[in-house]
Prior knowledge:
The protein is an alpha/beta fold and 465 residues long.
Amino acid sequence: MSSDHDLVVVGGGPGGYAAALYGAAAGLDVAMVEKQKLGGTCLHVGCIPAKELLETAAVYRTVAHAGRFGITAGAPVVDMGAAQARKQQIVDQLHKGVSKLLEGRKVTLLDGWGSLEADRTVSVSGGESGEITLAADHVILATGSVPRTLPGFEVDGERIMTSDDLLSITALPKRAAIIGGGAIGLEFASLLADLGSEVTVLEALPRILMGADNDVARLLGRAFRKRGIEVRSGVTVNSCRSAGDAIELDIEGNDPLAVDVVVVCVGRQPFTDGLGLDTAGVKKDEGGYVAVDEYCQTSLPGVYAVGDVIRTPQLAHVAFAEAILVVKHLLGESPTPVDYANVPWAIYSHPEVAFVGHTEESAIEAGHNVVTSVHRFTGNGRAMIVGETDGLVKVIAERSVDGTGGRILGVHMVGSWVTEQLGQGYLAVNWEATVPEVAEFIQPHPTMSELFGESVLSLTGRALH
Ligand code: FAD
């Protein structure tokens, strides 16, 4: 059977469903093929389940420290079964929501594997929709990514895990090693440590969280150590072996480390299996990502690719932005390409990290004459009230001739709820606002967002606090 559409999307994760929703909202006749469940990595084994379990950890922490607020509560006990059930309920609800949205916009949903063929046709097979061929004016590939693994680490889902496995645990490990000190690894370290596991983070690079400003990464590392998380950077983990009930990690130049569970968090690789790229003539780069230009066009006219399958920051909101860009582009509008250097980043560890734009180091390297200002959570009323004074806000700006601060180049934060506070920093950086302009913004009092206001104000040479 064959069917014609304006747009066919392969993959129903954030990149795919955003393209389908936005395309349908713009009046296109859209079909979308998904081989598993709508929502992709983000909804089922990524953003949503990870953040939901981190909220369980936050509740645990609140109860454990309730005495400080004059509340007597017993020592908290975690029930991972109940925590997993709540997580699943939220995932299911969101899954139903996205399915309904797509149906409401009259997107034709097909269950099966999509494979690109000649002349912008996509064959669908192996699922409930049976064998079908879709002819389209445009095709968007949004097939996402899967966890990378490490040689010498045979993932069994129980003792050696990827992020997919960790998000389904029903019992807490006593000792866990997290390999990889990036966003996902640090969120897992935070989660497990809050709930009572002994956690060691092993990072090969000289420090954790390489994308964030040094001051932010350093404070996060210190905060982790205070909570008993061992953070070891600049270490190479070669292999592991079973040692009775434990697993022993062979770390170059160090004693072996015995743990109960290893979570491999060394990034994600693009997923293009069975997509038919070679036969259709779509080029990949040396890392296996689909090669695209600034409008996400592949080497094949009319075929685009968005999200984790291309070499751009692997974030759901970047996939959304690319999906919108592509739909505008194929409609013949003149969209502005995504500015990847200035996308927002959010890490939901405790304390949280959020940042946008240049770090101090990268701004200097790029040749800017830089001024910075740092304000710490210790002096902030709201931070004291909620009992979360570990944190800082750092604003990186261009030095102006008159000394009142030029363009804001970067905003980097670590501390409680900073993922919810980055919005102003994002606007300032992306609107190319200057220090004097943003210094006039009024921050509600008492809030932690006052720290951003103060940091900018102090760059004018006149601070309040
Ligand atoms: P995916 O979400 O991977 O979706 C791809 C879809 O395509 C899948 O459903 C797959 O089944 C389907 N598919 C693949 N091949 C085919 C085919 N041939 N035919 C049909 N269907 C196919 N990002 C954030 O922005 N914030 C976060 O807090 C965050 N937390 C994360 C936490 C974890 C633990 C992980 C692993 C990731 C996290 N991410 C986060 C990243 C985010 O999940 C991804 O960037 C996002 O899911 C990418 O979307 P995508 O649509 O490109 O791909």
